[in-house]
Amino acid sequence: MSPSPPVPGTELTDPSSERHHLTPFLFAAASVGVVALALVAVAAPSSPSPAPIAVPSDPIPSPSSSATPATSPASAPYDAGQLLRATASFPLVTDWNVETGQSLYVIARDRGASGDVYQVQHWGDLETGLRPDTVIGTVEASVVDARTEPYEALCPPTVSRVEHVAALQVFERLVCFGAREISFGPVRRQEYQVMQSTPPWLGGEAGLDFFTALPFDSADGVAVPAGRWLQITGHFDDPGCGGDLVCRERFVVTAALQSQPPTSELQGTWTRMADAPISGRSSYVAIEVDRGTFIWGGDVTGENTSGAIYDAAAGRWTEIAPTPGVDRFGVAAAWSGRQVLIWGGNDNLRDGVAYDPDSDRWSTIPDAPITGGSAISAWTGSQLVVVSTTGHAAAWDPAARIWQRLTDPPIPAGYLESVWTGDELIVLGLSEGGADPIVGAAFDPATLTWRTIADVPYGGLVLGVPPRWTGTAMVFVDHAYDPVADRWSQLKTDRCSQGAVSSGVWTGRWLLGQAQAYDPIAGRCLTLPDAPIRPGFENTGFELRTHEFHTPVWADGRLIVWSGGTGLDGPGSPPDGVVFTPAAP
Fold first, then answer.
1. Is the pLDDT of residue 65 over 50?
2. What is the mean pLDDT of residues 498-504?
3. Phi, psi of 90 (to 5 degrees)
4. Which 8-state DSSP code applies to residue 91?
5. What is the mean pLDDT of the chain?
């Protein structure tokens, strides 16, 4: 086997850097990552299993060597590479016991005062496919017995991607590769991120994050920068480690070359927004209007009347006039093509307000003929249809300045989500505090009638995940609803993080979120490049990038992500933001 050559690039070195080792915390985290990634590999689409191949004989002899396996402690000493079974329970290390029948892999054999002593790794039950974190210790020959055959590692025939290495047990890496130089990529070392919504296995061409997948060290003068795509070259079994097995199992990086992003990443560019002239917040109204992205209200105490418009093309904010009347939250809002129409809120308000961006003026909307409360809404082309959490519906005609009471929707009063299809308002509802199946109904403004839609394939625990309209179907969690056929269908969601498929905005091609983009045609997700680190977190060790409870907007070919919480104690919602512009197809 020969290593895959690195792609052309510039070697990233840091002459001033010193050789470093993972701290116990990072090594533990990396070891846990190996376990998780091995389980992910089991769940991934299968490929033909490679046959056992010849492996180097040093420093650990190949398990497929000609050594005759022992069948009892008295028959023969056990060599490195053999798999043993415990014949009694005993302590392997402090606070950790081996139970009768569990498997042990021989790393080395030593001669003790009373007989052979083996350095072993415990690695769970081979027959059930479990690959838990390995525990290293010593055991006397009197409490183990050999299996009928030595263990043979299924060494990968090629090593071009990190999962070829990460899926192996740590001792298998020594058996398969020894100290030979191997190369793979593109891979990425990812910083620790608070509230990171993208699982580490979404990070690379084959879906693994280098930092999480392999405990690693770097040779003198070689830096492994975080957040960049790299072609990695290095080896295991560093001779400088001596007898330190944990040290020998680290991957020593001898070269880190810049690499092109993998095909699993959506190409595009993140840019920072200038700070807004209003306070940061979460759960605000964000709507695309003629002059840019209208942002208003939210969870800012005493400032729910403030708002601004962001022009993404010019990178400029414009603060708008304050809203008349009381603060509002939990409102229904829609763009009519001329005004932003806002109704209800505060669990009891029945009136509303309208904002004209051309004149920067607000006007009032009189009380509706229904009980107030949090609500959802849609602009039908001539009316604002609102449905309250109280289970009532009405329509506002801004030209005639008249409310019309509508038939109550056939859904329970309580939590609501909705989409506007261009012909119907589809509403998903759940009784407050309930865990019953979600009920869906569709309103036709042409006939002023409701119809109950096919049974929604989810219960109450997923309500709060927004449905999205793609032009032909409503995507909700990982199903799609076809209103013409009145039918739900399961979506293929290859490489998608749970709950994130319908959380993005529809671009006409992708459901685009902060960390991933879902392609409903191909049924798979691509990751996005790392967004800029939020201000104030550049050198904190958290590398915070996500904007919790923000309201995403697709405007003028760009994803607008502004403010939102940090998920941490301290600054709640800074007024920063970022814009993602996908590359032209």
1. no
2. 82
3. -165, 155
4. E
5. 78
**Cβ-count burial 495-526 (b if 16+ within 10 Å, e if not):** bbbeebbbbbbbeeebbbbbbbbbbbeebbbb
The CA distances from residue 308 to 280, 294, 327, in Å, are: 11, 6, 16
Question: Taking Cα atoms as reference points, which of 222, 217, 253, 227 lies closest to residue 11?
Answer: 222
Cα separation, 414 vs 493, in Å, equals 30
Question: Backbone phi, then psi, for 252, in 5-degree steps?
Answer: -95, 115
- Region 330-353 average pLDDT: 92
- With contact defined as beta carbons under 8 Å apart, do 150 and 64 qualify? yes
CA distance linking residue 203 with residue 199, whole number of Å = 8
Largest CA distance in the chain: 100
Torsional class of 64: left (φ above 0), alpha (ψ -120 to 50), beta (otherwise): alpha
Q: Determine the Cα–Cα distance for residues 2 and 549; give it in Å rounded to an integer.
A: 49
Q: What is the pLDDT of residues 69-116, one digit of tens each?
A: 333 333 346 666 677 778 888 888 777 788 887 777 777 777 777 778
State how far the Cα of 83 lies from the Cα of 103, in Å rounded to an integer: 7
Structure tokens at 457: 């394939």
* For residue 129, pLDDT beyond 80: no
Which residue's entry shows tokens 């904190």? 540
Q: Which of 88-92, 308-312, 569-573 has the lowest mean pLDDT?
A: 569-573
Which amino acid does the sequence have at 544? Answer: L
CB atoms within 10 A of CB 318: 15
Instruction: Tell me the C-alpha distance between 392 and 409, whole Å.
Output: 7
DSSP β-ladder status, 307-311 and 414-420: unpaired
- What distances in angstroms separate CA 397 from CA 2, 32, 340, 353, 362, one per listed residue? 73, 59, 13, 13, 17
Give residue 116's identity as a one-letter amino acid code. Answer: D
Question: Kindly report the CA angle at 169 between 166 and 174, in degrees rounded to 5?
Answer: 95
* Rounded Cα gap, residues 283 and 212, in angstroms: 33
Of the CA atoms within 13 Å of residue 514, those in its CB half-sphere come to 24
Q: Identify residue 359 by its one-letter amino acid code.
A: S
Higher-confidence residue of 545 and 352: namely: 352
Beta bridge partners of residue 479, listed in sequence order:
476, 490
- How many Å apart are CA 43 and CA 54, to the nearest integer? 27
Residue of higher predicted confidence among 134 and 362: 362
Angle at 299 between CA 294 and CA 301, to 5 degrees: 115
CB atoms within 10 A of CB 16: 7
- Domain range annotation of the chain: 24-55+158-258, 83-146, 266-321+504-585
Tell me how far apart the alpha carbons of residues 72 and 313 are, in angstroms, rounded to a whole number: 76
Nearest C-alpha neighbor of 194 from the set 543, 577, 450, 458: 543
Q: Per CATH, is 83-146 categorized as 2.60.120?
A: no
Work out the percent of the chain whose per-residue pLDDT is above 90: 41
In this prediction the pTM is 0.71
Q: What integer pLDDT is reported at residue 100 of this predicted model?
A: 83
